[in-house]
Design a protein that fits this description.
- It is a single chain.
- This protein has 23 helices and 19 strands.
- It is α/β, with parallel strands linked by helices and 535 residues long.
- The strands form six sheets. A six-stranded mixed β-sheet has the order 16-8-15-12-9-17.
- Helix 5 crosses helix 18, helix 6 packs across helix 7 and helix 13 crosses helix 19.
- The two termini are 50 Å apart.
- About 21% of the residues have low confidence.
């Protein structure tokens, strides 16, 4: 079935040109010379996209936009104008416009935007109807992540050491927790330690324990005996700790700091890293013999930008987690429940069942697994140690109705807000998505709209770490004469951001592209576009 587009423009040449060229591209096109005619056509025909000029006699494009969104919230509206201003673009987005194009533009530019519209819609619809698979608290409907789950399930059944690689915020610890929960050691402790938080002396004491001066402190290896030890950010291990760990793995025993007694231990080791450890070995900051021992089995967690179907899925989970109804319910800590018993949300009939049955509690438990900032516990029993004992079963969770069903009504998220989320590159992965949704829930009432999730932050944001001089100076009120259109203003900002990133990265294009959150090939194309020379 052809997509139907309504073109509204009082310039006959532009309107007829668009009608011909969009028809040749495979779309069914209706055309109107003014907004009132467009309203009649819109009322009489189902329309997928409205492409409308802003300045027209009588009813203008903004009034038409308001009418269309009230009559059919799911209809895409793209506004076009020869008199673009930043304020007008912001107003268009607030009113629900999907995009705002400055004249003159080519039909190819419009077609590219339409391709993104329908590609994003297809992804979101597929995510709504796809079978959702879960492995512990890791939920997905993306094929690339399904393969990860298959490999992780196989690895969980064995006893080999595992190295999990992935970008920050992608879900490495979530996978590690699920492996433990599905392993033969699931009834025994899971102890964790972050290798990047302390110096070598403190890290050795925390890992191996301390003995002497009339007192003994138990280390994480000893606490995890019989279970699993999770070393997070293993690339940050100091050299001295690496040597002690190699010796412990070889001998299956260790000595507390300050002690002389060799203590046997039986733990399964899982390590996570954000770096390519082979590269770190070449840099001389990680021992090759340790890498061989911890990477018997390797898993790679794909970044969120490669798991587009998961964006709507996770967005709904985080909405349920951060909605006021969740906080109004009884404060039950599900963080330590068996990860394997938590089910996905956001997919087809299963989604409806979850919302009706366990609602926010399941979503909150799943989403909590993605929270790296969970407060640390200090008691001997809970100092980085978790067990799967006492967990609820999936059947129990499905059958348990929320205690305050009337309160379990988090806001919905509009298709246009999902479109905005799907177009973002997510350099901060799942963690960044949660922060965006948390902010949107705070701003929205009953529905999360594009203005609640925009602007999506990037690595250049002044609020981002290390972005002290990467902010872009915008025209101040009263200083901008409106002489340049929106396209020229955006192009100028983009060019200056690229120059700043290159300067901060000493003209290293790979690092600059990473800082900007774009592929290196895209950076090269933009450098050529703006005439930026490569050193």
């Amino acid at each position: 079935m052809k997509r139907r587009i309504l073109v509204v423009d009082d310039e006959p040449l532009k309107r007829i040109t668009l009608q011909i060229e969009l028809s040749e591209a495979g779309y069914e096109v209706l055309e109107a010379a003014d907004a009132r005619t467009a309203r009649r056509l819109f009322d009489a025909n189902p329309v997928d996209v409205v492409v409308s000029d802003v300045r027209m006699p009588g009813m203008d494009g903004f009034e038409l936009l308001t009418y269309v969104k009230q009559a059919s919230p799911d209809t895409i509206v793209i506004l076009i104008t020869a008199y673009a201003t930043v304020d007008a673009a912001v107003e268009a987005i607030k009113r629900g416009a999907y995009d705002y194009i400055t004249k003159p533009f080519t039909t190819q530019e419009l077609l590219a935007r339409l391709d993104r519209v329908f590609a994003g819609r297809a992804t979101a619809i597929a995510a709504d109807t796809a079978d959702v698979e879960s492995f512990g608290a890791f939920v997905t409907s993306a094929p690339v992540a399904r393969r990860l789950i298959d490999h992780a399930r196989s690895a969980a059944a064995g006893e080999r050491t595992i190295l999990i690689h992935g970008e920050s915020g992608a879900g490495k610890e979530v996978i590690a927790e699920a492996i433990h929960a599905h392993s033969p050691r699931c009834a025994m402790p899971l102890a964790r330690i972050s290798c990047g938080k302390t110096d070598a002396e403190a890290l050795n004491a925390e890992l191996f324990g301390v003995e002497g001066a009339g007192r003994t402190r138990t280390g994480r290896i000893e606490l995890a005996d019989g279970g699993t030890l999770l070393l997070d950010l293993v690339e940050a291990l100091p050299d001295a700790t690496q040597l002690l760990l190699i010796d412990a793995i070889e001998k299956r025993s260790f000595t507390r700091v300050g002690g002389t007694t060799h203590i046997p231990f039986n733990v399964r080791l899982i390590c996570t890293t954000r770096r390519d450890l082979n590269q770190v070995v070449q840099e001389g900051r990680f021992r090759a013999d340790l890498l061989y021992r911890i990477s018997v089995c390797t898993l790679s967690v794909p970044p969120l930008r490669e798991r587009l179907p998961d964006i709507p899925l996770l967005a709904r989970l985080f909405i349920a987690k951060h909605a006021p109804s969740a906080s109004a319910a009884p404060a039950t800590d599900l963080r330590r429940q068996d990860a394997g018993d938590l089910a996905p949300a956001g997919g087809g009939a299963d989604d409806a069942a979850l919302e009706a049955a366990s609602g926010w509690r399941r979503a909150r438990a799943v989403a909590d697994r993605h929270d790296p900032a969970a407060p640390a516990v200090e008691s001997t029993a809970d100092a980085g140690v978790e067990t799967a004992a006492g967990s609820a079963s999936l059947a129990d969770l499905r059958g348990a109705a929320p205690r305050d069903a009337a309160l379990a009504s988090p806001p919905t998220i509009s298709r246009f807000a999902l479109d905005a989320l799907l177009m973002h590159t997510w350099p901060g992965n799942v963690r960044e998505l949660e922060h965006v949704i948390e902010r949107a829930v705070a701003l929205a009432d009953r529905e999360i709209r594009p203005e609640h999730v925009l602007p999506l932050s990037g690595p250049w944001s002044s609020a981002a770490p290390g972005a002290d001089d990467a902010s872009v100076e915008m025209p101040r009120e009263g200083e901008w004469d409106g002489g340049r259109g929106l396209a020229e203003t955006v192009a100028d900002i983009e060019r200056r951001m690229i120059l700043m990133a290159l300067r901060q990265c000493n003209n290293n294009q790979a690092r600059a592209a990473q800082k900007l959150g774009i592929p290196r090939t895209t950076l090269r194309d933009k450098m050529a576009k703006y005439g930026i020379l490569s050193d």
